[in-house]
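We treat protein structure as text, and this decision shapes the records that our systems exchange. Below, we set out a record of this kind in full and without editing:

***
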Amino acid sequence: MLTKTRLNSLQKLLIWSAGADQEILSQESCRTERYKYESIGTTVILTAIMAFCSGGYALFTVFGSLTISISLGFIWGSIIFNLDRFFILTASQNKSSSKLQFWVGAATRLSIAILLGFIVAKPLELRLFESEINQKISQQRREREREESRKDQDTPDVKRINKINEEIDNLTREKNQASDALQKARIDAIEEIEGKGVTGKPGVGTIAKERQKNVETIEKSVTFLDSRIQDLLKEKNSLIKKQQSSLSIKTPQKKEWQEGSLLDRISALEALSKDDPAIAITNKLITLLLIIIEIAPVLVKILSKEGLYEKLLEKETIDRMNQENLGKMAEKELSKMKELKNFQLNIEALMIEYIRLRERNKEKIEDIQMNKAKNIYQQHDEETANFIKLCRERVNNYEDLVD
């Protein structure tokens, strides 16, 4: 009698994750095989956990919601877990087939496992180099802002604003000079009227009137310059508002770019790898490590030789197939026996009916002439012989089918 070891819940989970049969591995003779499949199951579970973490982080950078990221990350981890378990289950099924079929299947499984390793590794790399990636994105943002500012300076509105500023500066200088001249002209006019001027006589004389006209002329010039400056300021404000409205339309796109999408982070990581050899080497080593962890269970299953577990599993599979085949054969035999029994019952019913008809015909034959009776008896005997022959042939045919 085979001795079996009682497995705990953790061992059952690891063996199930490795796609192995718990009943076979619980046997004491399969202890070494049990340890191997527990290690494979542990690797599969750890790979699923890493896929959950990397997928959750990648989705968080996209949606920004912790609930959605955890939910979809759990689904992604479950998909990776089922794929790894499927690869392990089917890794050694075609070892008994030709070498070409085996290696084609193995290469396909390893290729998919390597691809999954890249997919799982990339978000984890983004998380490990998050600070450097943020700095790179900030640098790219500043460069983009400078480029956009250079583009904005080349627009007609900006050129017009710059020209208006120059005109305002020139007019302001002229206005200041005119204001100083106006103040001096007013003082001279007042002094001339008071008798402190050139003539030394008080009152409004010829020189005083000329100086008053000069004051009025300068006042008109100052008023014109001030009006011109106000018009230019209004035009400048309208152009500035127009420019601000155009910039507000671009603000959402700038904000989205500044936050850094998943594609922006991947591009920033690639740029960092090109700029810094240390980051490139570290990035490749992390990717290689995660790929090795991902393909390790499948690779071990493919390259390992058939052990005691595989032989017991194959034997149990063959026994189950034989039992199923025997069950199907028994069902077929029973159905044939039932058909033969029904056929025999039908033949017996026909013979009874035939004998009954024959007895009836004998009563009718007594009233017929003897010569006709002989012919009728002869005809009935021939028909009876043919009928019995036919029944025997059918019985033999069904007996051959049953045998």
About this structure: The first helix runs from residue 9 to 17. The mean pLDDT is 77.
